[in-house]
Amino acid sequence: MIELYYWPTPNGYKIPIFLEETGLDYQIIPINIGAGDQFKPEFLKIAPNNRMPAIIDFNPIDGGEPLSVFESGAILIYLAEKTGQFLPQNWRDRKTVLEWLFWQVAGLGPMAGQNHHFVQYAPEKLPYAIDRYVKETNRLYGVLNRQLEGREYIAGDYSIADMACYPWIVPFEQQQQNLDDFPHLKAWFYRIQSRPAVMRAYETGKSYSSGTTMTDEAKKILFGQSAKTLQNGE
């Protein structure tokens, strides 16, 4: 059994996609990030950066005590190694998958995340910030589109690199991107979208996202934290 600490965000969706693809037994523990669940002391014990997703594996690779893992990229690698799936054993192919996984966690995710913030959530529209991150998101789409030319999946075979990148392309319209400008990425996107495991993961997410709104209080919780507020338990 794996406990998945989860909320339906791009990073959150990565892990249920993997779990659905492999059929691993898991239970979702919802972490409502708009309500501040990610700052509860019990969650911080397994996710010290107060970000979801995180997991607890009650049957870890080494057969020892239950093991917690935080950070979505680390979780994907851990689960891939645990199951022997979606991360090649051949070191050259493995290298390529890890390159694109790290490309997502260090580039596509953070840049698209800033795009989301300044386009959708910032209290005032800052043209320079919006232009900066919309253009950088566009550049990254171009990088991925070029990689997918002549390939069905990012690293050849379907892998954790695809699972990491796909959820960050799902909100392409909110990111002010047009998939028609990226034909190889577009074909890949709909190829991933049609996978039964992906459909199941997103269907599950609806039960947690339904009816949620980004209130002013939620924005304060999500965007107003500092080391001082965390230390004071605010």
TrEMBL record:
<dbReference type="InterPro" id="IPR004045">
    <property type="entry name" value="Glutathione_S-Trfase_N"/>
</dbReference>
<dbReference type="InterPro" id="IPR040079">
    <property type="entry name" value="Glutathione_S-Trfase"/>
</dbReference>
<dbReference type="InterPro" id="IPR004046">
    <property type="entry name" value="GST_C"/>
</dbReference>
<comment type="similarity">
    <text>Belongs to the GST superfamily.</text>
</comment>
<feature type="domain" description="GST N-terminal">
    <location>
        <begin position="1"/>
        <end position="87"/>
    </location>
</feature>
<dbReference type="Pfam" id="PF00043">
    <property type="entry name" value="GST_C"/>
</dbReference>
<dbReference type="InterPro" id="IPR036249">
    <property type="entry name" value="Thioredoxin-like_sf"/>
</dbReference>
<feature type="domain" description="GST C-terminal">
    <location>
        <begin position="90"/>
        <end position="222"/>
    </location>
</feature>
<keyword id="KW-0808">Transferase</keyword>
<dbReference type="InterPro" id="IPR010987">
    <property type="entry name" value="Glutathione-S-Trfase_C-like"/>
</dbReference>
<dbReference type="InterPro" id="IPR036282">
    <property type="entry name" value="Glutathione-S-Trfase_C_sf"/>
</dbReference>
<protein>
    <submittedName>
        <fullName>Glutathione transferase</fullName>
        <ecNumber>2.5.1.18</ecNumber>
    </submittedName>
</protein>
<dbReference type="GO" id="GO:0004364">
    <property type="term" value="F:glutathione transferase activity"/>
</dbReference>
<dbReference type="Pfam" id="PF02798">
    <property type="entry name" value="GST_N"/>
</dbReference>
